[in-house]
Design a protein that fits this description.
This protein is an all-alpha fold and 162 residues long. Helices cover 77% and strands 2% of the residues. It has 4 helices and 2 strands; from the N terminus they run E-H-H-E-H-H.
Length: 162
């Protein structure tokens, strides 16, 4: 076995113990605020604890989320008002259409009653027409019988038998 003259390359590894604090500039960049705003959070060494940055980042995220939620609530409130106004308009239209439907139903019932009445009148007219025709035929028959003198004989014969 020959000794290896070159040592194997060593991969870069992060420091196993990350720094417990960061500079105010880094903290400001992480939090997305001006450096002056975070400088008051620095300790005696001029650095800011990671725990403080995490808390501030959490609070900032919560503040952003709260602002978004408030904005959404406002938007939803506006939409609810629009929906309520739309519902009121639709209810009003529904009442109007219900009244119109009732009116049309009554009109249809009146038309149906008038049609039935016309039908009854037409049946009466037909019946009267038949009766007039029968009367006319009977009258013509009587006239014909009168002309023949047969009526006088029948009347005499009917009086004689009683």
């Amino acid at each position: 076995m020959t000794p290896n003259p070159r040592p194997a390359p060593v991969a870069w590894r992060p420091d196993p113990m990350p720094a417990e604090s960061i500079s105010p500039g880094e903290a400001a960049r992480f939090l997305g605020v001006p450096e002056e705003e975070v400088s008051g959070l620095a300790g005696p060494d001029g650095r800011i604890s990671l725990e403080v940055v995490r808390e501030r980042a959490g609070a900032a995220a919560l503040s952003l989320e709260l602002a978004r939620a408030r904005e959404e609530v406002g938007s939803l409130s506006g939409r609810i008002e629009e929906i309520r106004a739309s519902n009121m308009r639709l209810l009003s239209e529904l009442k109007e259409s219900t009244g119109e439907r009732r009116r049309l139903t009554e009109e249809v019932l009146e038309l149906r009653a008038a049609a039935e009445e016309r039908l009854m009148l037409m049946e009466r007219i037909e019946q009267m027409s038949r009766l007039e025709k029968e009367l006319k035929e009977s009258t013509l028959e009587l006239e014909r019988l009168k002309r023949k003198g047969l009526l006088k004989r029948l009347l005499r014969h009917a009086r004689g038998s009683s």
